[in-house]
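Look over this one:
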Amino acid sequence: MDSLMDRALQMLNGMIDEGWEYPEAEFRVLSRLDLSPSQVDQLQQLYDEQ
């Protein structure tokens, strides 16, 4: 996993730990990091595999 995806997954998990719901947390991570569609798919897969 590259550092951008590490960072994205960390941000997503951190926001969820803070009480954000998954769809809103994912949207905020995507908008902050400007991920490509393939990176969005990769992030969703990484999150599901945890």
